[in-house]
Structures are given as C-alpha cells and as structure tokens.
Model the fold of this input.
Amino acid sequence: MSRQATSTDGHNIDRDRLVDLYRTMRRIRAFEEAAEKASITGQVGGAVHLSIGQEAIAAGVCANLRQTDQITTTHRGHGHCIAKGTDPGAMMLELFGKEGGTCGGKGGSMHIADFEVGMLGANGVVAAGLPIAVGAAHGAKLMGEDRVVVCFFGDGAINRGPFMEALNWATVFKLSVLFVCEQNGFASTTHSDAVTGGGGANARAESLGLEAHTVDGNDVAAVDALVADLIPRIRGGSGPMFLSANTYRLKGHTSMDPALYRDQDQAAAQWDVDPLIRAADELRRLGLADSDLAAIDSAATGEMSRVSEAADAADTPALEHAFADIQDVGAPVWEAQS
Amino acid sequence: MSRQATSTDGHNIDRDRLVDLYRTMRRIRAFEEAAEKASITGQVGGAVHLSIGQEAIAAGVCANLRQTDQITTTHRGHGHCIAKGTDPGAMMLELFGKEGGTCGGKGGSMHIADFEVGMLGANGVVAAGLPIAVGAAHGAKLMGEDRVVVCFFGDGAINRGPFMEALNWATVFKLSVLFVCEQNGFASTTHSDAVTGGGGANARAESLGLEAHTVDGNDVAAVDALVADLIPRIRGGSGPMFLSANTYRLKGHTSMDPALYRDQDQAAAQWDVDPLIRAADELRRLGLADSDLAAIDSAATGEMSRVSEAADAADTPALEHAFADIQDVGAPVWEAQS
Amino acid sequence: MSTMSIISYQEAARQAVAEEMRRDKRVWALGEDLGRGGVFGQYKGLVEEFGPERIADTPISEATIMGASVGAALVGTRPVVEMRFADFALCAVDEMVNQAAKARFMFGGQARVPMVIRQPSGMWRSSAAQHSQSLEAWYTHIPGLVVAAPYTPADNKGLLKSAIRCDDPVIYIEHKANWDLEGEVPDDDDYLVPLGPARLAREGADITLVTWSKMVGEAEQAALLAAEQGIDIEIIDLRTLWPWDQEMVFASVAKTKRLMVVHEAVQVGGFGAEIAATVAEHMAHVLVAPIRRLGAPRAPISYAKPLEDLLRITPEKIVALASEQMAV
Amino acid sequence: MSTMSIISYQEAARQAVAEEMRRDKRVWALGEDLGRGGVFGQYKGLVEEFGPERIADTPISEATIMGASVGAALVGTRPVVEMRFADFALCAVDEMVNQAAKARFMFGGQARVPMVIRQPSGMWRSSAAQHSQSLEAWYTHIPGLVVAAPYTPADNKGLLKSAIRCDDPVIYIEHKANWDLEGEVPDDDDYLVPLGPARLAREGADITLVTWSKMVGEAEQAALLAAEQGIDIEIIDLRTLWPWDQEMVFASVAKTKRLMVVHEAVQVGGFGAEIAATVAEHMAHVLVAPIRRLGAPRAPISYAKPLEDLLRITPEKIVALASEQMAV
Ligand SMILES: Cc1ncc(C[n+]2csc(CCOP(=O)(O)OP(=O)(O)O)c2C)c(N)n1
Ligand SMILES: Cc1ncc(C[n+]2csc(CCOP(=O)(O)OP(=O)(O)O)c2C)c(N)n1
Ligand SMILES: [Mg+2]
Ligand SMILES: [Mg+2]
Done:
C-alpha cells in the first residue's frame, strides 16, 4: 500500500468531534502501548493482540452508538471496548489478572466484556462473535427494542462458516446489525488475500443480501461520517449492513510476534499513514494548537500509565472465584476444593 | 412455478444419447419407486429420501463423467449413485440392510458409497459432503491426477457454513470441482427461499470466485449440454465451477412424508413437468416409437422389481460385521462380544 | 391438588414449552421446521399459538442456531434450541462448549446464558451411524453445562420446565424412541422436576442399577425377569446426569452392596464410567461384588437391524449381568 | 544400532513429519500458518523442503480443514491436520466424529481415512478458558478414532510416525507446555512407537499411578517426593489412550494393589473414569485401597494465574493422595 492522503477534508467534520475521536484513539493507543509493555515484562501473562494502527475504526464506529447499543469483538478488541465506554482501569486489571478486572481477572484480554456499556464480549475463537452478535440483535427484535448491534471481526474471519451463516441469518430475520470487517491484511502470519477466494468480504456480504460499504479505516472522520449515516438507517429497520474498513496491523499478531514474515519496508511505510498521525494532521489543519494535541496525548499516556501501575499494585482475585459463576447447580464447592 | 416448455429443442441432442439419458432417469425412477414401496411395507427400515422429479440432474451430470471422476452426494442420493454407475442391486441390498449391499448393509440409504465407480459416499449430515468433495479434488491435485469431482447438494445446504468454506477452499486451491446445487424448493418441510437471504446459491458462489451457471434441472438435455461444456474446462484446470439446477421435489421429504405443508395444486402441477415426461415427449418428437419408450420403461421397472425381490430374499449380514472395519487397533473383538 | 393426565413423552414436552412460553414472554424456540411442528411433532400447534417470531423456523445453520441463541440468551431472552438429532449438534460444538458453557464464567458473572439445547438422541428405527448417537457423556465433562436425560413423560414435562427456567445452559436429551411412551403427568402449570435429584424407579434389595433415558424401561423389564430368579433390583433413574444424585446412589449402594450402571451410549468413556469410578472411590468397602457397567461396544451403529440390535442393551443382557453379580 | 540425540518435544514432532513426508509422497500437512512454521514452530523449515503444496497454508476454516482432509484421505493421501489449539477442533466436530471416524465403517470397509489430527492441548501461560482445554476423553468415546497423547520427545517422534502410518484417523494430542521439553530421541528414520502399548515410566512397588501427557512429569516429581516418605510409586505413561494398555495396568495393579489415575483434564467424565471403572470391574479383589482419581475440578479455566494454578495437578497434590492411599 502506498501512502494515502487524508480524506477527512471532504467530511466537514466538526473540530470538537474530531478532537473527541482523536482522544479516543489516543487513549486506545496509550492503553495498548502500556499493555504491550506489561506483556513484555511478563506482568500480563496471557496473549495480547494489539490493534495499534486500527484505532480509527473503533473510535469512528462507536462514536455513533448509544450506550444501550451493543458490540461484540475479537481477540483484538481493546480498542472497541474503550471506544464503547469500558473503563480502561478495569480492562488493565483484567489483563493483569487482578481483582476488579472487567471479568474479575478470569477472562483476560481475549474475554473482556462489559455488559453495562453494551460490550458483550471479546472472543478467543475467530468468527465466534458473529452468531452471538446476530443473536443479541435477534433478542432485541423479540423484545421490541431498537438497539443496534455492531459486530467487529477481522479479514481472516470471513473464511469461517459462521461468518456466512450469521450474515444470512441477519438478512433472513432482518436484524439490526452492523458487521464491521477490519481489513488489516493479515490473519496471524498469513496474508489474508492468499487464503480468500473471490471478491472478498463485501462481495460475500452483498451476495447474502446486505448493503455493503467500504471505508478508509485509517481515516477516523471518514469512518465516523459513514457510520453516522448507517446506524440511524439500521435502527430505523433497514436490516443488517456491512462495512469493510481498510487498515493495517502495525504490530505483530501478538505482542510477542516480530512479524518478520512481512515486507519490512512496506510495514514501516504504514506508520506514516497511522490513523493518529492523520487525525493529528487534520486537527492542525483545523487550527488545533500543537500544545492542545500534546495535552491530549499526555493525558492519555498519563491515564494509561496510571491504570497500568494500579493494575500492577492490585490484588489477585480471591481464590474462591475460580469456582464462582460456573453454574447454579452442579458447580464445584470452594470449601470442598480448598 | 408454472408449466415450463421443454427447452431441449435448442440442444440438438443426439437421439441415442437422449435415449441413454432417459434410460438412466427411468432406472432411477424405477429404483426409487421400488424403494418407496419397500419403505412403506417396512422391508426397508431406515429413512428413504426420494429424488423423484430430480432425475435429470443426476443423469445429465454424470453422463459427462469418467469412471475415475468422483462424486459425493447427500441423503437424497440414489439417483446420483445409479447415474455414476453403482449397481442398483447392491444399492437395494443396502437399503434392505442385507449382505452384498454397497456397504455390506451397514450404511443404508444415507450412506451408500461405491468407491470403484468414484461414488465417494452419500451423507446424513447436510452440507458435509462439500468439504469432502473438495478434499477429494485436493487429493487429486496433490497426486497429479486429472480427475474431476462433482459435489451434489440441496438448496437447503447452502445455509450451512461448510458450504462457504468449501467453495472458498476450492477457489483458493484452484481445485477441479463442480458444485451442483439441486434447487428443489424445499429443505425438509421448509421453503428454502424463506430461510435464504440475498441472491441465493449462484450469487454466493460468484462472490467466492466461482463461475456459476443455472440450468433447467428438469430438462435432461439442457443439463447434459451445459455440463458437457463445463467438465472439460474444469478438467483443463479452470478451477471450480458452480451449477444451480432448478427442479422440484415431487415427493415428500422422506417416503413417509405426505408433504401437506405445500400448496397441493402447485405440487400436482409439477408432475406435468416431470423430467421423464419431458424427455419422453422430446424422444417422441425425435421419432422414437412409443413401443421403444415402453420397452425402456418396462426394462427399468423389471430390473428394479427384480433387485427389490432379490434384496428381500437376501441374507442379513453376518453379525460379526458389526465389529468389522471400525479401526485397525482398538476395535471390539467379535469373539469377545458374542 | 394437581390432577393427572395420561399423555405421551412428546406431548409432555410440548406442554412444557407451551406453558413456559405463556408464563414468560422471554422464552422462545428456534430450529429447523418448527413451524410445521418440528421433525418429530414435538412443537405441534405452537406456532399457531405463539406466532412465527417465538416459534422460529431457521435456516440449516446449526452453528448459528446455537451461536445466535447464546447471543439472544446473553441479552435476556430464553431460547429453547432444537437440534433435531443429537448428531447434528456436532455442527455447533464451539458454540455450545466454548461459548454457551463458558460465557458466564469468563465474563466474571456479568451475564447468564439461559438456554435449553434439545438433543434427541439414541437408536431409533435403523437410523445408522450418523443419526443414532448418545453423547451425553461429552457434556457432563464440560464445566458450565447442566445435562438432563428424562425417561418418563412426567419427567419430560417437569425437567424441561425446570431447564427452561434454569439460568444456565442445559443440554436436554430426549430419547427418539420414547416420543410415544405414555404415562401419568400432572396437569399443573407449575409442575417442576428439579434439576439434580434422581428418581427411585424401583425399590430392590440386591443390586443397585443406575441408568437413565430409555434404558430405564429396559431396566424395569430386566427387574421383572430377574425377580423370577429371585434377584431384587433397585433402579435409580438418574434423569439429571450433571449434577447427578450421588446421595441417592450412595444410599442405595450402601443398602444393596452391589452396583450396575447401564446406558445405551458406548461403554468406553461413557458416563457410566464416572458413576462406577465415583462409587469405587468412595464405597469400595461396602461392595460385595465388583461394579459392572453395561454400555454399547465401541462400534459405530450399524444400519442393518440385526447388527444394530447387537449394539442394544436388552433386558436379557441386564439380567445376565445381574445374575453374574449375584453369583460372586 | 540407532544413535540418539537430545532434542525437544517439538523438534521430535518436526522430524517425525519430515521423515514420513520423505518416505511417503502421499503424506502432507495442512493448517493455518504452517508456511511460517506453525503457531508453535512445530513445522519450522518444512515448507522450504516440501513446498507449499505439501505444507499447505489454509484459510481459517476448521470445518473444511477437517472435512477436506477426510476427502483427501478417502482418495488415498495421508493428511496431517493441524488444529492449532485443541479448543479450535471444536469448530470441526462433525467432520471428525460423524465423517472421519465413521466413513470406513459406514461404507463397509471400502475406504480408509488415514489422517492425523493434531490437537495441542492443555494449560499453557494463562491462556484462559478457550485456549487451555484437555478434551482427550471425548475422543476415546468415539468408535473409529485412535487417541494418542505422548509425553516424552522420543514418544512424540515415534508415536507421531506411527500415527501418520496408521490407516485410521488418529487424534494426536501434544501438550502445549511440552514443546521445549528435551530428551533422548533415536535418530533412526524408522523409529516407531506402536499405537497401544504404554510405557513404564518408573518402577515402584506401592501404588500404580496411571497418567499421560504432561502429567507424567508431575507424576515423576511426585514419585521423588513420595520416595522421601517411603512410598514407592510405579508410573505408567499410557501415551495411547485408545486403545489403552490394559494389560500393563492390570499387571501393575496386581503387583501394587493400589491404583491412582491422574490427568490434567476435568475429572468428571475424564478418561481417568474409564480406567478407574475398568480396574474396579476387573480387579476389585486385589485392591487393598480404594482407587483414587485426580483431575481438575469441573470449572472453566481461569485466566488469573493463581486461579489457574488452583486447577493444576501438582506433585504435591499427587503425593497427598498417595499418602492417603497408603494410610488405608
Ligand atoms: C477458530 C479459530 N481458528 C484459529 C484461531 C487462531 N487465530 C487467532 S487470531 C487468528 C487470525 C485472525 O485473523 P483476522 O480475523 O484477520 O483478525 P486479526 O487478527 O487480523 O485482527 C487466528 C488464526 C482461533 N483463535 N480461532
Ligand atoms: C446438519 C444437518 N442439519 C439438519 C439435518 C436434517 N435434514 C436432513 S435433510 C434436510 C433438508 C435438506 O434440504 P436440502 O439441502 O435442500 O436437500 P433436499 O432434501 O431438498 O434434497 C434437513 C434439514 C441434517 N441431516 N443435517
Ligand atoms: Mg486480519
Ligand atoms: Mg432442497
């Protein structure tokens, strides 16, 4: 991919709104940089999949959702969680496996969930979130609620059967789902293109009856503008829609992956079209002072280093939680185990 | 559906070839009528799914295959087996659960297989045959063989995930597979359309990179002509192709199903466009004498009533076969069981 | 006082679903062909009463039938998932095991997954290897799942109602050869059989026979035959496999000092092994004869009837084992 | 005479695949990311030697990875199927259980399904509930499947080679925490460990401890600790779970008169139940202490390390159980 011009110009985005989007992205970035560090030091034990470079999608999509709207995400979901309103403090505690984590430390990065803000769960199984998202929307329909459900997933996920089943289901039952495919070029160490036949995600979605859109997923204003248009239509009963957001996974598959399998020059060039750089350029163009940008950046970095320190200092969960919330009948009894 | 005109006219089909196709169809019909009877009397114990009304697809497709080419089929696969060259005697023995059946009586109607003629198996699980067919073609490619694999399945199967996965796989690995979707309007008691979103089978296939065709599946000459064109191209390395064949399931889902859930007038009208009637009309037009047609019909009926009688008279399998061909190590030992 | 009616196993289940759907608007059912009553007629008439939204016809998409149900359960509805044949649930195992069973726990208790997964199981009319399996043991091995397998019509009503009211995923195993079995069933709309406790199907002094689902019927016949030989079999119908009623089984074994476990599923790795092992661990001292299991040989199920029959547990096989046990 | 090298569990498996691919053109491997060596590096260098057709990168399509392998096996190739994590094999259960395991039988022996299904299993580095499961028990319950779970590097070479040469589907369970374990492995290209026989990992007089996979290591440590208390544990590394070496286990139990079964998987419905039940059925008369099983509690696996650790089988837990058994 060559360097892309920022296309925000055309969107007449309000500066305040772009500031908010930028702040969200910067907070995601700062969270993940802190998580990456903690992963490398071993403070975070489980696998950490960074969405660095993909923040514009999370920010641009979720800015258009109500708190009662819901999302599902994947192994690479920190950005979606933060953008949807999950407390990064609780998220970081979760990554560290500590008390007060979103899941009490029992899930880790790949299973973050925050039902209060409509974050129905990350998922360790590729494509497993699609049927779940569709079911959440099916539930809303049955209960007569006008929630929209957004389902995030990667370009590798479109080759798993549940992808097709879920899209077909959403069409058949006319559900209020926005499917968002993050086209970051990779599925783990594999180039997604090499294992994807035909016209790709949008062609498949259209064949299944969904209106499908493509957006420059590194242009947060473009994502925001498009999704601002789609969500009300979906809420109004249009049925499901599909959005492919083109982006690039700037880091390896996990925090431990040096990603040597890809063209290093190309990968390096992608840092120039980092969505944060592009949004910052645009904000400067719109007259935001460098000092204001720097303030946002350092607030985010500060926030996330604080949550990271707090997580490090926090207590591990009480042992009996290993046997809590399994099932009402037939769960192991802590007293008997200890 | 309204009554369709036979469209064979355009195909300049050789009369001898049409006679052969007609004979194949008639033999399939006769086989299934005998099977239906035996199912109703209880001589055949397991479920029997009749392809009555769909014979033109089996006949027209398989007439263009070599013996070394391979097929997979479904629960509704008698026609495909016969058309591919499986001995109806062995098939009927299989339905009766008798010694000498294609699978020694251990599989029944839904698991008929005949590897010698390239019939790699019916399947009791909807859509399970697609990945298997694709794998057979993958094997051929690895071994440098120019076999073509034809995969038959129904319009209900296109909503299962493995449908998409298998088509994508065939495209990615450029495999020599012809996917044949029998659009008979139903998935069990459900109208296929009611649970299928978007443009249907061909739209999905095209989105996955397959060249997709549609044919009047009740017109055996049309099926034959089209497939005669496709198979050499596939064998030549075109990659996978897709064929939707429009037809109608004249009987219920199983031999026990009166199919009261469908419009009875419409169903009755479909008997007028029965592929056998249409082929017979065409043959008459091409100058075949009624007596010749009658001879084909009675030969087929005679053959199948003989195989049915023979199956009835045949021995049940030796009991120890219940423990044969399970696995080389760790199978139960017959002597220990008896 | 509750009145009783004699109804079939199938009708009992139908009533259970209908009553729970009337009682709780959040309950709905989904699966293939439900609008025409379901493949065995167990949903007959329900679409007429509840409409096609709550008795939903689905595409043939087992993975998404299951996965969408997980999503719908997470947001507060209570799906009854029809898998048609237990064998087809194998197309939806990630959704059952990695998603439904684990979501409550993984998410730290933020959400529940109240769903019932109906899996008609077992041998029925020469259905061969892909339509006859009994895989209940698998689900007992998975934390987060409740597993029920009723035998009587009354239990099929009361347990299914409890399963629908349960806030966790319940694997609900009905036996395909039981649909027409009739029995007395309370008419009471609130007739519930709790998940967990077993049912003492027959009192006896000599051998404790633990079983479930259709094998209860075989065991009852066996007990009559055994009685002629002077062997008095006590039959425990487990009806819930997880959690299972260890207390009733232990009490019975303490009395009879002999244990037999009988199931239709393959013996190797079957749930009988769990019961046998547990009793061996805890009650070896009271046993006067070795524990005996009776399950199917480790063979795929044949189509041909005589071969299929070989794999069946019969009253005769049970009696033979019982006499052997008494001979020790 | 065969020379030996000290290599890792992972390298042993890599050699096994490479040697069998050299030996037999029909052998190939497929799965996600294999061209870059596979997710754990266990295919490192193979694409360079064998090319991308025989070391095939696949889409993320577990059902079709499995199903296509069934088809490819039916026509005479010998696929080695990489599932990456055993948990993901749950996306391909129909293909494993309804197709691979049953095809040979259902088709009356017309065809074979020679495929190896590699399922890296077990707890490894805080991987939480969807990446840590040990589900070997499931596969032992399915007719048609062979199940192997090696512990030593030598066995991982010799058993994997046997699995690749086997004409039936083999569920091949490697432990994710074992990849770096080193040990002596014969260099011989024809070094085979047959499917079936167990390995006597330690001789002992007092207790027979049956285990497999990574738990062999824990058992060995436990035996050292127990020895300090004067308890002499005999360790049988089953290495093949189906068929399992009943003969060696029975002979050992006849000698020690005590049985312990230890596995990482959930205890309820685990394969330990099968072993315990079988010994209880056949050897109750020789036992001087009740059989003991040690498996994980029936709980999803927690992410937080101290909680995850609670679910682990440790040498200490084994020793505690051993002393308890000796105290009887
Ligand atoms: C069913 C399943 N198969 C394989 C994996 C292993 N895996 C984890 S992430 C990943 C790549 C996913 O690629 P994509 O969907 O594009 O998401 P991205 O990582 O690029 O965000 C794979 C193969 C898995 N978690 N689940
Ligand atoms: C995975 C799976 N789900 C459900 C079934 C039950 N079933 C058998 S045939 C059938 C309908 C199939 O429809 P279609 O694919 O159109 O084939 P047709 O019967 O029309 O030939 C269903 C739902 C099954 N066998 N397998
Ligand atoms: Mg990707
Ligand atoms: Mg159909």
Observations:
- Chain A touches chain B at residues 159-165, 167-172, 194-199, 203-204, 206-210 (CB under 8 Å).
- Residues A 154-156, 184, 186-187, 192 surround magnesium ion (ligand 3) (CB under 6 Å).
- Residues 3-309 of chain A form a domain with the Rossmann fold fold (CATH 3.40.50.970).
